[in-house]
Amino acid sequence: MAAAGEGDQVRLAGRTKKPLGWKSIPFILVMVYIFFTQINRMSVFLFATNETFEKAASYGVAANLITYLIKRFYIGQLKATNITNIFFATLNFTPLIGAFISDSYLGRFKTLAHGCFASLLVCPSVHAQPRLL
Hints:
InterPro entries: MFS_trans_sf. By secondary structure, the protein is mainly alpha-helical. It has helices at about 25-35, 40-75, 75-105, 110-125, and strands spanning about 10, 15. It has a domain at about 20-95. A two-stranded antiparallel ribbon has the order 1-2. Strand 1 and strand 2 (about 15) form a beta hairpin. Helix 2 (about 40-75) packs across helix 3 (about 75-105).
């Protein structure tokens, strides 16, 4: 019978490694602090510009999504707004879950491999379908 906690260990190249969980958060915060306090102001400007345009685009999509839900699916305005808000909250929160899983359990390479495989599975199903008569 295995001792308590042995099931949480992962074998990597002959070594055992325990998942770090929230212990990796201080290192991430220090790296973010170092990134934003360095002299490299151009990268901070480009990062801020990218985030600004990304948020502007997502707000534009949100307005169109509400209109689409109301006009095409005949959903009430309040319910369409709630659906849109839940969608964007989930969209903004899932990277944190993915980062936690990557840092704590899988590692960056396995996470990238799983993400690429999932993208390959999804891509053929989202392209435009030709009309069959």
